[in-house]
Design a protein that fits this description.
Layout: H1 13-21, E1 25-30, H2 63-71, E2 78-83, H3 93-105, E3 109-116, H4 123-135, E4 137-145, H5 149-154, H6 161-173, E5 177-184, H7 191-204, E6 208-213, E7 216-217, H8 221-225, H9 235-247, E8 254-257, E9 267-269, H10 276-290
Parallel strand pairs: 1-2, 2-3, 3-4, 4-5, 5-6, 6-8
Antiparallel strand pairs: 7-9
Helix pairs in contact: 9-10
The chain binds iron/sulfur cluster (SF4).
Length: 298
């Protein structure tokens, strides 16, 4: 299989969006004011052990704040309103409709990205998403993190992988694009287990994948269990593993993230991950060294 991606070596979402919309597309990281069934007691309490109190929306804020942040740097760009914090379908359809419509009315907003849980997609919500999918650009993000239920239970994910698979099928049946989150470096997971999760996702063939390096952040369940942090990978091991994964990823799957993005002031481990640029450069160097690219080994 040839390298279709030039010097980037993999199918970055930034490039995909630029080709789709003809200009730079930026994501507005939004906190829509939702909570999560894994925090309010309906599914669980305390949330997933790796999740911060802001519902993994570290940099999320409001649309005007986000536009102000981004428009100075890229005045010609357009935006996808990304509902990131907590569970963004955990509300009545009428409430979601109001919030999504308000986002789409902002000048320059060309679509929606909605992060949620597989157990928060009942038929009426799927119907609502179907409606938005027909009138705007939309993708839905689901956090699998691992396919291994016994590890997910320890992480307090509070849904089985079978439910994730069903949600993927429900979204795909409506032609709604999906983006799947995986975490690399969960405690007790070997690289083989992580690769099994990657393979599981590749077989489901979502629109996109986000690969997160596990961060142990202050004030999370993980930090209570592992106050010294978790040190699964050195920086070089992680870089090589990312390339191992991408070599096995179908070429049409867009890659949205290949590392973590937690606030440095809250990070317990791995401290090397704050130098994100070094990781991204290291990945490119490793692609070149191996003369390889996304999907080469398929
Ligand atoms: S489902 Fe998402 S928002 Fe809810 S606790 Fe888990 S990671 Fe956090």
């Amino acid at each position: 299989m040839e390298n279709k991606f030039g010097s980037t070596h993999f199918n970055t979402i930034a490039t995909w969006l630029k080709e789709r919309f003809g200009c730079r597309i930026m994501k507005l990281s939004l906190d829509g004011g939702f909570t999560c069934p894994n925090r309010d007691g309906s599914k669980g309490t305390g949330g997933c052990l790796f999740c911060s109190e802001d519902g993994s929306g570290h940099y999320a804020s409001t649309i005007p704040e986000q536009i102000q942040l981004l428009s100075g740097k890229w005045p010609e760009g357009k935006y996808i309103a990304y509902f990131q914090s907590h569970t963004n379908t955990y509300a009545e359809p009428a409430v979601l409709r109001r919030i999504f419509d308000e986002a789409l009315e902002w000048p320059g907003v060309v679509g929606l990205a909605v992060a949620t849980r597989p157990d928060c997609l009942p038929p009426e919500i799927l119907d609502l998403l179907d409606e938005y999918n027909k009138k705007t650009f939309l993708w839905v993000e689901l956090g699998l993190q691992t396919k291994h239920d016994h590890i997910a239970e320890k992480m307090n994910r509070c849904y089985p992988t079978a439910q994730f698979d069903q949600a993927m099928a429900d979204l795909k049946a409506r032609n709604i694009l999906t983006v799947v989150h995986l975490i690399l470096g969960l405690p007790e997971e070997t690289k083989e287990m992580m690769m099994e999760s990657v393979q599981h996702v590749a077989n489901l063939h979502p629109f996109g994948v986000k690969l997160h390096l596990l961060h142990v952040l202050k004030n999370t369940g993980l930090a209570e269990l592992y106050p010294e942090g978790i040190h699964t990978f050195t920086q070089q091991e992680y870089i090589e593993f990312i390339v191992d994964i991408l070599e096995r990823m179908p070429q049409d799957i867009t890659i949205h993230r290949i590392t973590g993005d937690g606030p440095a002031e809250d990070l317990i481990s791995p401290l090397w991950s704050v130098k994100k640029r070094d990781i991204l450069n290291g990945v490119q160097k490793e692609f070149k060294r191996r003369d390889t690219w996304q999907g080469k080994l398929l």
